[in-house]
Amino acid sequence: MTGEPNPFGEALPPDPLRVVVADDNPVVRAGLTALLDGREDLTVVAEAADGKEAYEATRAHRPDVVLLDVRMPGVDGIAALPHLVPLTAVLMLTYSGEKEIVQEALRRGANGYLVHGEFTADELVAAVRDTRRGRPHVTPTAAGALLAQLREGDHGERASGPPPGSRWCTEGPTERPTSTENLSQLQPDVAQSVSDRSTYGLSGREAEIMDLIASGMNNHQIAATCFISEKTVKNHINRIFAKLHSTSRSEATATWLGRAPGAGREWGDL
Prior knowledge:
Layout lengths: L16 E6 L3 H12 L4 E7 L2 H11 L3 E4 L8 H8 L4 E6 L4 H9 L4 E4 L5 H12 L7 H13 L51 H11 L4 H8 L3 H15 L4 H9 L13
Parallel strand pairs: 1-2, 1-3, 3-4, 4-5
């Protein structure tokens, strides 16, 4: 058993942290696998070429962390995120540094966002380890996207956050949603945007926070993503619940996504 002494009285090493690598480029996958498998406390249990394969590998192997690319054929990383985050921690690892993509990935529950070329091998390994511990990392491009989001949002609610170029870490374990969807099939686009559904009178910041709630984030993660205090998050949630006539996160999410509580989101044919 992990951490238990063996018959000779010596403590056994902990089980390696299990990783799934999802990228459509086989050279990138092979390089990441070789890098991570070269560490005693890390092991790659599966590789995937798109979001659907990443989901299937996660269901089969139950990894601690999924490294997920954004742009992949078929089902991309952004579309797969809402189905992966209830199962495990997801760290975006991609060449895509567009502000909107970074912000959407974090809204949908990614635990961090690393852009290729902005980190060393040791920094990647540290980010993978920290992701499992619930400590998100972002590289400079992603940090800049978060700062832009902050400046475009509620300036009056700004809390101290990292400047662009710093590593963003927050302490504490990552909570996982207790419910899961019935995901027998997959489709490239699974989430609705605020622009194509009623906002129920929510302000821009409230709509943003409601999207984060719907993605499965807890208050601590929302506060870190938006650079506001947890108390401010709770105040927003109270107003959101009142406007959505809801008394719980699951009820508010059901109303926000326009579906009945507990209804499964089907992944349509590709």
